[in-house]
TrEMBL record, chain A:
Keywords: Cytoplasm, Nucleus, tRNA processing. Pfam families: PAXNEB (PF05625). Residues 108-121 have a biased composition (Basic and acidic residues). This is Elongator complex protein 4. It is found in: Cytoplasm; Nucleus. Residues 98-121, 340-363 are annotated as: Disordered. The keyword ATP-binding does not apply. Belongs to the ELP4 family. InterPro entries: Elongator_complex_protein_4 (IPR008728), P-loop_NTPase (IPR027417). The keyword Protein biosynthesis does not apply. Pathway: tRNA modification; 5-methoxycarbonylmethyl-2-thiouridine-tRNA biosynthesis. The lineage of its organism: Eukaryota, Viridiplantae, Streptophyta, Embryophyta, Tracheophyta. It comes from the Eukaryota.
From TrEMBL, chain B:
Pathway: tRNA modification; 5-methoxycarbonylmethyl-2-thiouridine-tRNA biosynthesis. InterPro entries: ELP6 (IPR018627), P-loop_NTPase (IPR027417). Transmembrane segments: none annotated. It comes from the Eukaryota. Belongs to the ELP6 family. It comes from Hibiscus sabdariffa. Pfam families: ELP6 (PF09807). This is Elongator complex protein 6.
Length: 363, 255
C-alpha cells in the first residue's frame, strides 16, 4: 500500500502509520481492510484473500443438501484454531453439540498432496538451476511455521477438532428456536461485539459470528419479515464498526422473492450452495470429475469495502469436492470433451454453462 | 486525470456544460440498481461533481448503507488532494449517519414515522442555517431508500411521505434530490408501487443493470438515463474504476 507512485503533482498522500500489527489469523487486504480466512483456502483465493473485517457474509442454502454446514464448520474451526472469539446461533435446541462436529486442521502438508504437477515442472525447466533453492526454501518455511500461525488451514473433516480449542475459549452459543423475537440474539450479538471495538491501530483479536439457517420455519420469529431484516441491518452495522466477520446462512426458498432480494442486497459477500443429484447422466457428460463433486458453490457478490470497483471473477460457479473424503476443495468447472458422435456441440445449456473454464485464452 | 473531463453520463445528465446554474438544481434524480450491479458509484460521481463545481455548492449526504469512512476513502481516490473530512469541516459537506436509525415499532400512530420526521426537520434546519448563497446550491443524496424502508419498519408510505417533503425542498430552496434504490426488490406485483411512485417523482431516472450476457471484467454493466427535462434517453455501457467511471457506447472501450 505504501508503494511510491509517480504523480504529476507534488501532492503526496499523508499516510498515518505503517501497517498496524495484526493478531493471529489476520492479514492486510486491499483498500485498508484487514482480512481473515474463511477456513477454506480455495475460497480465500477466490475472494481475493479472505473475508474483510466488518463485512457480512450471507450464504443461500439448498434445502436438498447441507453443504452450507461445511462452510460454517470450516469458518468456525478456523476461528477457534486462531483463538478468535466465536458466537454461534442455530435453531437447534443445543447448539453446543455442533461444536463437536468441527474439523481439525490437517496434520501436515504432505498428507494431502494434490498429485504430481507436471505443468509446474515444465514451467520451471528454464530456471533449472534455481530448483535447488526451491527445495531449500520450502524446508525452511515449513520448519518455521506451525499450524497455529498460518493464516489459513486445510481442515480434515474426518477428524474432530481437539477439545482444547473449544474449551477455555470465548465461545458463545445461542439457540434461536424458541425466542419469540430477536431481542435475545440481538443482545448476545451486541455483548459479543462490544468486546471487539474497532479503533485505528493494531488489532489483537478479531471475532466471528455464525448464524445458521436464520429464517428456518422452526423459529418462532420466522414470519416476522421486517423484524428479521431489521436485525440483519443492525447486525451489519455493528459488525461494520467492530473487528469481526458475521456469516448468516438462510434458505432462500422460505422467503418471499422481494425479501429474498432485500437480504441479498444486505450481504457484503453473497454465496450460494447447491446440491448435485447423485446420478445425473447429463451432468456427468458435461463435466469432468463429476463423480467426485458433492455440490456447487456460487459466488454472487464479493465485499467491496472502501472502494467502488466491483470484483468480477473469472468464474462464479465452483464445484465442491472432498479430496480423499476429508479436505474441502473448490474447483473451477471443466467441460468434458464433447463427444463428436452425439452431434450436438451446443450442449452447453446445462446449469453451469456460464462458468466453464476456458483456460488461457479467456475473453 | 483531468477532473473536468466529462463523459457520457455527464452528457446525459446535462453536466457537461460548465453552465452556472447547476443543471440538477431543483431536480429529483432516482437511481435504480440491482444485486449484480451496484449503483452507488453514481452517487460518488455526482457527489464529486457537485463538490468540485464551485465553492458554494453544499451536499447533504444521508447514509443508511455505509459509514463515513467508506465514502471518505472512495472519494479520496476520485479527486487528488481532496477529502471529505476537510469538506465537512468547511461546512460544504454534511454527513447524516443514519446507520442506527430505527423507528420504534408500533409507534406509528403517535409520531408517524417518528425518526423520518425528525430527519426531515434536521435537513430543513441545516439548509436554513446555510449562508444565502449556498442555500441555492444544495444537493441532498440518500443512500439508500430500501434501507430507509427497513428503518421505518417497512412502511413505505412513511418513506414516500418523507420523499414528498424533500421534494418541497427542491422547490423551496432549489435543491437537488438524488436517491438510490434497488429495482429488483420491487419487481413483484404488489411491490412495484413504491418504485413507480419514485419513478414518477423523478426528473431523471438512471437504471444500472448488468448486460444481458452477464458480468464481464471490461464492461461492468449498462446505464439507461431517462432525462425528462431534456426529453432524452441514453443507453451506454460503463466500467467502474477506483477514481472514475468510464462510459462508452457498446463495442467501444471509451467514448
Amino acid at each position: 500500500m505504501a508503494a511510491a507512485k509517480t504523480r504529476a503533482s507534488s501532492f503526496s498522500r499523508h499516510l498515518s502509520t505503517a501497517a498496524p500489527s495484526l493478531g493471529p489469523g489476520l492479514k492486510c487486504g486491499p483498500n485498508g481492510t484487514v482480512l481473515l480466512s474463511s477456513g477454506i483456502p480455495d475460497l480465500d483465493k477466490i475472494l481475493g484473500g479472505g473475508f474483510p473485517l466488518g463485512s457480512l457474509v450471507m450464504v443461500m442454502e439448498d434445502a436438498e443438501a447441507p453443504h452450507h454446514m461445511l462452510l460454517l464448520r470450516n469458518f468456525m474451526a478456523q476461528g477457534l484454531v486462531h483463538s478468535q472469539p466465536l458466537l454461534y446461533a442455530s435453531p437447534a435446541r443445543d447448539p453446543r453439540g455442533f461444536l463437536g462436529t468441527l474439523p481439525s486442521p490437517a496434520a501436515s502438508k504432505d498428507d494431502k498432496s494434490r498429485g504430481p504437477e507436471p505443468d509446474q515442472e515444465k514451467g520451471l525447466r528454464i530456471a533449472w538451476q534455481y530448483k535447488k533453492y526451491f527445495g531449500e526454501n520450502q524446508l525452511n518455511f515449513d520448519g518455521q511455521r506451525d499450524g497455529k500461525h498460518e493464516y489459513s488451514n486445510e481442515f480434515n473433516l474426518r477428524n474432530p477438532l481437539e477439545r482444547h480449542f473449544i474449551n477455555g475459549q470465548r465461545v458463545d452459543c445461542v439457540s434461536i428456536q424458541d425466542s419469540p423475537d430477536l431481542s435475545i440474539l440481538q443482545d448476545r450479538c451486541t455483548t459479543f461485539l462490544s468486546q471487539l471495538p474497532r479503533n485505528d491501530g493494531s488489532i489483537s483479536c478479531a471475532g466471528r459470528i455464525a448464524i445458521q439457517s436464520f429464517c428456518s420455519p422452526q423459529c418462532v420469529y420466522s414470519n416476522m419479515e421486517w423484524e428479521m431484516l431489521s436485525f440483519i441491518r443492525s447486525l451489519k452495522n455493528m459488525v461494520r464498526s467492530s473487528n469481526s466477520v458475521a456469516i448468516i446462512t438462510f434458505p432462500p426458498s422460505l422467503l418471499s422473492p422481494s425479501f429474498c432480494k432485500r437480504w441479498q442486497h444486505m450481504a457484503d459477500t453473497l454465496l450460494s450452495v447447491k446440491a448435485i443429484q447423485d446420478d445425473d447422466k447429463e451432468l456427468a457428460q458435461l463435466l469432468t470429475g463429476y463423480q467426485d463433486m458433492i455440490g456447487f458453490l456460487n459466488v454472487h457478490k464479493v465485499a467491496r469495502i472502501n472502494t467502488q470497483v466491483p470484483l468480477i471473477l473469472e468464474a462464479t460457479t465452483f464445484s465442491i469436492k472432498l479430496q480423499k473424503r476429508r479436505y474441502l476443495v473448490l474447483e473451477c468447472l471443466n467441460q468434458a470433451p464433447v463427444d463428436g458422435s452425439s452431434g450436438n456441440s451446443d450442449g452447453t445449456s446445462g446449469s453451469c454453462s456460464s462458468s466453464s473454464k476456458t483456460g488461457n485464452l479467456d475473453f | 486525470m483531468n477532473q473536468r473531463s466529462s463523459n457520457l453520463l455527464d452528457e446525459a445528465l446535462g453536466l457537461d456544460q460548465a453552465s452556472e446554474p447547476w443543471p440538477l438544481k431543483g431536480r429529483v434524480v432516482a437511481i435504480e440498481d440491482r444485486v449484480e450491479t451496484s449503483g452507488s458509484f453514481i452517487l460518488h460521481h455526482l457527489l464529486k461533481r457537485s463538490l468540485s463545481r464551485n465553492s458554494s455548492n453544499v451536499s447533504i449526504f444521508i447514509a443508511f448503507a455505509q459509514p463515513f469512512s467508506h465514502y471518505d476513502r472512495v472519494l479520496r481516490k476520485q479527486i487528488l488532494g481532496w477529502n471529505l473530512v476537510s469538506q465537512r469541516d468547511n461546512g460544504r459537506f454534511f454527513f447524516f449517519d443514519m446507520l442506527k436509525l430505527q423507528c420504534p415499532v408500533g409507534d406509528e400512530g403517535i409520531t408517524p414515522g417518528g425518526g423520518l420526521i425528525a430527519l426531515y426537520g434536521k435537513i430543513h434546519k441545516t439548509i436554513s442555517a446555510l449562508p444565502e448563497i449556498s442555500q441555492k446550491n444544495v444537493s441532498i443524496i440518500i443512500d439508500d431508500l430500501s434501507l430507509m424502508e427497513v428503518a421505518a419498519n417497512g412502511s413505505s408510505d412513511h418513506v414516500l411521505d418523507f420523499l414528498h417533503y424533500c421534494r418541497t425542498l427542491t422547490s423551496e430552496f432549489d435543491c437537488s434530490l438524488i436517491t438510490l434504490n434497488h429495482e429488483d426488490i420491487y419487481s413483484t406485483e404488489d411491490g412495484s408501487t413504491f418504485l413507480l411512485q419514485m419513478a414518477y417523482l423523478a426528473d431523471i431516472l438512471i437504471k444500472v443493470e448488468p448486460l444481458a450476457t452477464g458480468l464481464a471484467a471490461d464492461v461492468h454493466g449498462q446505464l439507461t438515463v431517462s432525462n425528462k427535462g431534456r426529453n432524452k434517453a441514453s443507453n451506454f455501457h460503463f466500467k467502474v474504476k477506483e477514481n472514475m467511471v468510464e462510459c462508452f457506447y457498446p463495442g467501444r472501450s471509451r467514448d
